[in-house]
Amino acid sequence: MANVGESDKYLLNRHKESHFTAGEIVRDVIIGVSDGLTVPFALAAGLSGANASSSIILTAGIAEVAAGAISMGLGGYLAAKSEADHYTRELQREQEEIDTIPDTEAAEVAEILAEYGVEPHEYAPVVNALRKNPKAWLDFMMKFELGLEKPDPKRALQSAFTIAVAYILGGLVPLFPYMIIPVAQKAVVASVIVTILALLIFGYAKGYFTGSKPVWSALQTALIGAIASAAAFGMAKAVQG
Amino acid sequence: MANVGESDKYLLNRHKESHFTAGEIVRDVIIGVSDGLTVPFALAAGLSGANASSSIILTAGIAEVAAGAISMGLGGYLAAKSEADHYTRELQREQEEIDTIPDTEAAEVAEILAEYGVEPHEYAPVVNALRKNPKAWLDFMMKFELGLEKPDPKRALQSAFTIAVAYILGGLVPLFPYMIIPVAQKAVVASVIVTILALLIFGYAKGYFTGSKPVWSALQTALIGAIASAAAFGMAKAVQG
Questions:
Q1: Is B4's CB within 8 Å of A110's CB?
Q2: How much is the pLDDT for A16?
Q3: Which of A7, A35, A46 sits opposite B72 (nearest CB)?
C-alpha cells in the first residue's frame, strides 16, 4: 500500500488537494490596496483636522500616494529580487556541499527523516537513492532542509507593478472627494463614508480570498482604517496646537 | 552510511549549518524602517515643492507617520494572525484526512518521495513507518506536502509592534529638520541630506543582515528614497499647478 501503484493513482486523482494557498498576486494586491486605502485616507482626515484646505490635503494625499506606491513597489521588487538571489546562493552552496561533503549531506537527509520517527533501516534506502541521483538530492535538500522553493524569475517586476498599482487605486478612493469638494470639512465627511465602505468591501474580499471569515475580515479592515485616521487626526491636531 | 550513526553525528556537529535565513524580527524592522524613512521623507519633500510651510509639512508628516505605523503595524498583526489561523485550519484538515482516508494520504507521501526519483521499494518502509506513527505523519504532511511551519503564537503581536516602532523611528528622521527649521525651503535641504545619509546607512545594514552586497544595497535603498521623493515633489507641484 506504500507505492504509487494503480490504486494509489486512482486515490490521488479522486482526492483533489484543495488546501488553500493565497496566490502571490492576490497577496500583492492585498498589500497594496490595504495600505493604499488606509494611509492616504488617514493622512487626509488628519490634515482636515488641522484645518488644512482641500487643495493642500489633495496635494499631500497625491504626494503620499506617489511616494507610497514607489516605496512599496520598489520595496516589493527588491524583496522578491533578494529572495531570488538568496535562493541562487543557497543552491550553489548546497551543490558544493553535496560535491565536497556528501557523507555529511547524506547524514542531514537521515536526520530530516529521523525527526519523523523513521528508523535508520527504514530510511537508509531513500538516502541511498538520493545519493545515486545528485540532481534530485539537491532539490530535496533545498526543499526539505532549507524550505526554499525555486522563485519565478518574472516575479520581482510583477510584484513591484502589482503592489504599486494596487496602492494607487486604493489611495485614490479617499482622495476623490477632495478633488470635487473644495471645502475640506465637507470633503472629509464624504471621504470617510466612501473609504469605510471601500474598506468593508475590500476586507470582505480579502477574507474570502485568504480563507478567513469574510465578515470578520471586513470589520477588522475597516477598524484599522478608522484607528489609523483617528490617530492621524489626533496627531495633526496636536502638532497644530 | 545512511543512518545517523556516531560517524554521522560527528559529521553533523562538525558541519555547522550556517545557511543564512533572515530572522523574522530583522525582516519586520527592515519593512518598517525602509518605508518609514522613504514615505514621510518623500511626502515632506513633495509638500515643500508645493510651497507649504514647515508647520503644515510637519503636521502632514506626523499624521502620515501615525497612520503608516498603525496601518503597517496592524497590517503585520493581521497577516501573522491569519497565517497562524491558516496553519491551524490546514492542520485540522490534514488530521481528518489521515484519519478518514489514510490510504490516500499514504499515497501522497509516496508521491512526494517519488518526485525525487526514489523507487517504491525504496520509500515503502518510510511510508509504512509514518503510517505507524500518526503524530509524526501529520507533521510530515504539514511540512513536506503543504510546506507549512508551525507559527509562533507570540509572533503576531511582536510583528505588529516591531514594524510600527521601526516605521516611527524611520519616519522621524526626515521630519526632524522641519521641527527645528521654520523655513520649509531650508528645512527640506537638511531633510534630504539627513535622510539620504540614513538611507545609505540603513541600506548597508540591510544588505549586511540579508546576505546581499551591503554597498549595492545601500545605493539601491537611497535610490528608492530619491525616486519616491522626486515623484512626490513632481506630483505635488502638478496638483498645485
A1: yes
A2: 42
A3: A35
